[in-house]
Structure formats: structure tokens, C-alpha cells
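Feature request, filed as a ticket because there's no other form

It would be nice if the structure record came with a short human-readable summary line next to the C-alpha cells. Right now we just get the raw output. Example of a typical job, pasted below so the devs can see what we mean:
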Amino acid sequence: MIHEKIKEIMIQLEIIPEDINVNIDDDLLAEYLVDSFKFIEFIVQIEESFNIEMDEDDVLVENFNSIRVIANMVDIKRKG
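Raw output as currently delivered:
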């Protein structure tokens, strides 16, 4: 499932702690601040994991507010 893979990537990149239960609707930006390098790394991992390409218009704060929002964007991109 897309949600689980996104969470797995976030744990792998140490954006969210593995031992904390993060809800798919939790406000990620308010809870887990990331530096710009880690954010780019996260985007690259999402693109590679789901075989999608994000445009500049996709890389907006509102598209990364929660795991659900990210998953919806990935799903739209995959459907093309």
C-alpha cells in the first residue's frame, strides 16, 4: 500500500522515528521538521520507489502535509 511505503521511506531517512505511531493524517510539517537536503532525498526516494517524476509544481508544502496527502499525490502521478 502506498501509505505504508511512504512511512517506510520516512523511517529509513530518519524523518519520523520508527518507534512512534504516525497517523496518515498527522501534520508532518508541524511535527517533524526536515532540512532541505533531507527533503530532496525524500522526494528522490518517492520518485524511485513509485516510478514517478515530480514537477516543480508538485514540490509544494501543501503536498507534503501528511502521509495521506503524499499518497494521494503519488496515486495521481502513477495514474498519469
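Something like this underneath would help us a lot:
Residues 36-50 form the longest helix (15 residues).
The chain has one domain: 2-79.
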